[in-house]
């Protein structure tokens, strides 16, 4: 057992109670490593749309003992179907061989259901709400974390899982949300209980039914915000603009907008970047805080959860809490995760830009030493 587990002080402090932070907390709970989560929001809300769970992350849910619960709130994803604005079929991509390749079905579920499942794995007293971190400092092998309410926390290791709010390279905007269960009589496919359907309408003017827009560079610069959300007025205006769009499942988009709780609709800027530095001293980052992906491949949250799995393994294998051991653990985490983050970011860009109607040609290279595929742009 790691010495971290025997420490009566707080070894690990996690900033951010999103999917990455909760996954990390659940894994630390399972590993009997002391931790605490700080969340700046005053109440937990899971914003976003549907999320696809790929095979490589599912064993973590088995280890946590919640794989059966995960299957109960999700359905296998059989195909992704594409349509033009007149709802003519363009084509489909299939995931029938996914289970054969990795042993698990590709699952899709509503993000709030995944969020609630992970939240249940973390005891309530280990999450503090309304804790906006304003500064940190490191001293004598400890990290001091100061919050806006004048509280301080003392830890051996600080994990930043609160995303990044950069004001550079923000050129995409998206609206996401989860509607209440629609009427199966209106949408007959909802009556199917053995699989799920994912449909995407590709617009004539770089619009899609998700809904995504690409902003010109001048508009993007004019709308650079510190936070990732806007107020209800801005959201309502965007919904109004697209309420008459046809829905691939029948009716119009307004039918889905109207069935979606307004507090679960989020308007966010998107950007792509992989930061070169993921750790310094006793502070380490995961998820969007160190790699931001465009939404085309739907892998942002899954990548954060993969980060959490690798990071916990590295922490658990620490010989002691010395600076040397911490640096060794963080370096191992960085080494195991960086290449996949870099490749997945590029693959997500390919898919996203293709969906936006861009011409995007990439060259795939095989990195023999890591047995992974490297993607480098050869033309745009």
UniProtKB/TrEMBL annotation:
One of its GO terms (molecular function) is monooxygenase activity. Residues 10-171, 265-338 form the FAD-binding domain. Pfam families: FAD_binding_3 (PF01494). It comes from the Eukaryota. InterPro entries: FAD-bd, FAD/NAD-bd_sf, FAD_mOase_fung. SUPFAM superfamilies: FAD/NAD(P)-binding domain (SSF51905). Keywords: FAD, Flavoprotein, Oxidoreductase. Signal peptide: none annotated. Belongs to the paxM FAD-dependent monooxygenase family. This is FAD-binding domain-containing protein. It comes from Entomortierella chlamydospora.
């Amino acid at each position: 057992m790691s010495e971290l587990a025997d420490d009566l002080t707080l070894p690990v402090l996690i900033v951010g109670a999103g999917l990455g932070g909760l996954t990390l907390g659940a894994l630390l709970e399972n590993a009997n490593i002391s931790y605490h989560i700080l969340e700046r929001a005053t109440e937990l809300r899971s914003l976003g749309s549907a999320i696809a769970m790929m095979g490589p992350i599912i064993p973590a849910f088995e280890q946590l003992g919640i794989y059966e619960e995960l299957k109960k709130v999700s359905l296998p994803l059989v195909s992704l179907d594409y349509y033009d604005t007149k709802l003519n079929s363009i084509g489909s991509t299939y995931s029938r061989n996914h289970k054969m390749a990795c042993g698990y079905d590709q699952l899709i579920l509503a993000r709030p259901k995944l969020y609630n499942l992970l939240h249940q794995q973390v005891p309530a007293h280990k999450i503090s709400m309304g804790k906006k971190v304003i500064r940190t400092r490191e001293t004598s092998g400890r990290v001091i974390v100061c919050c806006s309410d004048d509280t301080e926390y003392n830890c051996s290791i600080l994990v930043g899982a609160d995303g990044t709010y950069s004001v550079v390279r923000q050129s995409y905007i998206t609206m996401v949300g989860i509607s209440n269960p629609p009427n199966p009589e209106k949408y007959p496919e909802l009556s199917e209980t053995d699989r799920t359907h994912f449909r995407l309408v590709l617009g004539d003017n770089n619009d899609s039914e998700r809904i995504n827009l690409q902003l010109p560079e001048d508009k993007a610069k004019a709308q650079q915000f510190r936070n990732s959300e806007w107020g209800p007025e801005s959201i309502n205006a965007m919904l109004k603009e697209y309420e008459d769009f046809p829905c691939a499942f029948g009716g119009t988009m307004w039918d889905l907008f109207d069935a979606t709780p307004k507090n679960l609709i989020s308007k966010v800027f998107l950007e792509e970047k992989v930061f070169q530095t993921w750790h310094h001293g006793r502070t380490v980052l995961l998820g969007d805080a160190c790699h931001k992906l465009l939404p085309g491949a739907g892998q942002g949250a899954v990548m954060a959860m993969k980060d959490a799995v690798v990071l916990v393994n590295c922490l658990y294998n620490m010989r002691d809490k010395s600076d040397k051991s911490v640096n060794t653990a963080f370096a191992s985490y960085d080494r195991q995760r960086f290449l996949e983050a870099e490749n997945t970011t590029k693959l997500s860009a390919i898919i996203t830009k293709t969906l936006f109607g861009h011409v995007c040609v990439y060259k795939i290279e095989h990195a023999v030493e890591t047995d992974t595929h490297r993607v480098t742009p050869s033309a745009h």
